[in-house]
Specification:
Blueprint lengths: L2 E3 L2 H9 L4 E3 L6 E5 L3 H11 L8 E3 L3 H7 L5 H10 L4 E6 L6 H4 L4 E5 L4 H9 L4 E2 L14 H8 L5 E3 L11 E6 L2 E6 L5 H8 L3 E2 L23 E3 L2 H8 L4 E5 L12 E3 L6 H16 L5 E4 L8 H12 L3
Parallel strand pairs: 1-8, 4-6, 5-9, 10-11, 12-15, 13-14, 13-15
Antiparallel strand pairs: 2-3, 3-7, 4-7, 5-6, 9-10
Helix pairs in contact: 1-6
Bound molecules: threonylcarbamoyladenylate (TXA) and magnesium ion.
């Protein structure tokens, strides 16, 4: 069973020995291994049960190190990096051969991020290789936002989880690429479109395309609890689903129609950023309840509300 602790030296030694471990970031916890070591990268895919056509994000701690493994940094990418790194933003950049093809699933661009978490930044500063790290959940399930979530699901397969407390952003990073037509967001995430557009002007969003070869992992049925999710009001659900036991994932308000202990409120104050922080833990606790269905409410389409809605819509897709 994985040990949990705050020892950077333990984490460093394990990673140098080719192991994969859990690491905290401000978005979600990552399942990290040496990005330059194909054996370690293979282990990541195996532990997560992730298909090898779904590429991994590479994490490091300085722009200087990023430049060692990407060919160029287009001007808008540099401006975003200067403004938002370390932070919840991933840039798609042309890779140098030093990054194994396994990391990018054979694509010629690598996804790169400098995460904003003090423990992980210290760890990255002491390593002489970058870390490949997908979210530390079994493929298709809800991403972890606490060390305990990682231990619960992957603890029997990894030796260590570096415990950095609860993830402060709570949803995965925004992924952005740079085409001739301008910047393109492939995954909505912890950095809002409004923030990005202040720095690089209009960006287009292609996160819902299911035929997008650039982000094959961004398909439906991601972030999904075991219990089916429907996007409905509790009132409508009561009409449609009686006598099933209903759980509620609400933005601001508790519903008088459903027992309070079967409800999770994301932000009583109505703040999309706070709602994002609480989203995945709320989904997990509903998933552990004795209920038949989760009724979820969409947020206003602004700020991180868009990214939360994206997660809810994907969770609600039934196979
Ligand atoms: O916030 C985050 O981004 C977290 C933390 C741990 O950094 N990581 C994360 O990784 O969410 P993951 O693997 O769960 O999601 C990364 C997504 C993948 O689904 C993949 O499709 C896309 O990023 N991606 C990775 N490399 C890519 C590439 N070279 N080109 C296009 N998309 C890529
Ligand atoms: Mg993931």
């Amino acid at each position: 069973m994985a040990e949990t602790g705050t020892h950077i030296e333990t984490a460093k030694k394990l990673l140098e020995a080719g192991e994969v471990i859990g690491i905290p970031t401000e978005t979600v916890y990552g399942l990290a291994g040496n990005a330059l070591d194909p054996e370690a990268v293979l282990k990541i895919f195996r532990v997560k049960n992730r298909p090898s056509f779904d590429p991994l994000i590479v994490h490091t701690d300085t722009l200087g190190k990023v430049e060692q493994f990407v060919k160029t940094l287009p001007d808008p990418a540099r401006r975003l990096a200067d403004r938002f790194w370390p932070g919840p933003l991933t840039l798609l950049l042309p890779k140098k051969p030093v990054i194994p093809d396994l990391v990018t699933s054979g694509l010629d661009h690598v996804a790169v991020r400098i995460p904003n978490h003090p423990l992980t930044l210290q760890l990255l500063a002491r390593l002489d290789f970058p870390l490949a790290a997908p979210s530390a959940n079994p493929f298709g399930y809800i991403s972890p936002t606490a060390a305990g979530h990682v231990v619960d699901q992957l603890g029997d397969q990894i030796p260590y989880v570096l415990d950095g407390g609860s993830s402060q952003v709570g949803i995965e990073s925004t992924i952005i690429g740079f085409s001739e037509g301008g910047p393109v967001v492939y995954r909505l995430g912890g950095m809002s479109l409004e923030q990005l557009e202040k720095v690089v002007g209009k960006v287009s969003v292609r996160s819902h395309s299911t035929s997008n070869p650039k982000a094959p992992g961004m398909l439906s049925s991601h972030y999904a609890p075991r219990i089916p999710v429907v996007l409905q009001t509790p009132e409508a659900a009561l009409k449609d689903h009686l006598p099933e036991r209903i759980g509620v994932l609400a933005f601001r308000h508790i519903s008088p129609l459903i027992p309070a202990e079967q409800q999770q409120i994301l932000s009583p104050a109505g703040d999309e950023t706070e709602a994002a922080r609480h989203l995945f833990a709320a989904m997990r606790s509903l998933d552990a309840m004795n209920i038949d269905i989760i009724v979820a409410e969409l947020l206003p389409d602004m700020g991180l509300g868009r990214a939360v809605n994206d997660r809810l819509r994907r969770a609600a897709v039934k196979l």
